[in-house]
Amino acid sequence: VPVRAQARVNLAAVERNCARLREIAGTELCAVVKADAYGHGAAPVARAALAGGAHWLAVAAAQEAADLRAAGIEARVLVMGAVSEQELPRALEAGADVVAWRAAFVELLAAAGLPVRVHVKLDTGMGRLGTRDMSEAFRVADLVESSPSLDLIGAMTHFATADELGDAFFGEQLERFAPFADDLRERGALAHAANSAATLRSPEARFDLVRCGIAVYGMDPFQEDPAPHGLEPALELWSYVAEVKRVRAGESAGYGRRFVADRETNLAVLPIGYGDGVRRALTNNADVLVGGRRYPLVGTVSMDNVTIDVGPDPEVEVGRRAVLIGRDGDERILAEEWARRLGTINYEITCGFTPRVPRVYHRDSVEAAR
Ligand SMILES: Cc1ncc(COP(=O)(O)O)c(C=O)c1O
């Protein structure tokens, strides 16, 4: 039965990607499942990641940790983002690990009177969260250690340019982090710094734990083909052919007549649009697979529909599956291809699928329960 739009998520691919990342890293794996697992669905992906050998999960917000608990997930969850005083009870109720870089925040944690697991963050050059001041980072770590209800669990940092191969700044950040990591490791803490790109490119960056997001989903942090890393895209975006119509030369399709046929041809209408996350900038700038062949998306992407030019001799019939992202026969369209066309990164592509698109879970094409 055709479905107007669906994001099909292969949980077996998530599992294999996690196993692969563990093999590459040789450390513990923390699967980053923030932003609803980069649009894939946090709880099902988290379970698959844990089944694939991840021991940790990470999110950005306290609420995301609470949502994982509500779904019955008991694994370690690290809230990597800033947690306001207002959000703190939510993180603590979830039993989440939190990140600290200011003494005042540690005092707040201590005042909660609950056992809290704390990671201290040094800003080695990302220029976002964490303290840039090494002595401040040590002071915060000391304060955590001296607070009876708090546990010093980790020393962390985050790279700004791990995905830019050949960039010297990456090495500089690594050098800045090393003495802090060494010191806290001696006190029994885990050091962690690597996102997916750092995990793939740099053995020195892996420390005790790697925090991988994009690679868990089988996308390439370097915006190329994930396959050479042994990673498989977990998500496919499908629609179907809801209508086929013959147009003559000079006839147009869609808002603003941005496509005018220069010959007699057939247009197939797919009931998916920017209201689903097919960005409007893909107007006249994408391909779609039907029956294992690539056809150009023509005309303006509208909120609920797109049109593709399927040529004069239609094998493309109403009801056929249309693959906007994914594999069909020997052809493949990666999220990286959309990202290149849109001048963005694959992260933003899958995060951009809207709630109107049902996420359908399967394991290598066998339907899976959430
Ligand atoms: C602090 C931190 N660590 C790790 C990650 C995972 O990054 P990636 O998806 O590139 O593996 C993120 C996500 O942006 C992050 O903010």
Walk me through what this model shows.
- The protein is of the alpha/beta class and 370 residues long.
- The chain is built from eleven helices and 21 strands.
- Strands 8-7-6-5-4-3-2-9 form an eight-stranded parallel β-sheet. A six-stranded mixed β-sheet has the order 19-18-10-1-20-21.
- Helix 1 crosses helix 3 and helix 6 packs parallel to helix 7 (134-146).
- The longest helix is centred in the middle third of the chain and has 19 residues, at 168-186.
- The radius of gyration is 23 Å and the shape is elongated.
- The chain starts with 5 loop residues before the first strand and ends with a strand.
- The mean pLDDT is 97.
List keywords for this structure.
alpha/beta; 11 helices; 6-stranded mixed β-sheet; 29% helix; 370 residues; 26% strand; binds pyridoxal-5'-phosphate; 21 strands; elongated; 8-stranded parallel β-sheet
Helical segment tally?
11
Q: Tell me the strand percentage band.
A: 25-35%
Uncertain residue segments: none
Task: Give, in spatial order, the strands making up the sheet with the most strands.
Answer: 8-7-6-5-4-3-2-9
Name the structural class.
alpha/beta
Structural shape:
elongated
How much is the average pLDDT? Answer: 97
Small molecules bound in the structure, each named once: pyridoxal-5'-phosphate
Whole-Å distance between the termini? 20 Å
Largest sheet features: 8 strands, parallel
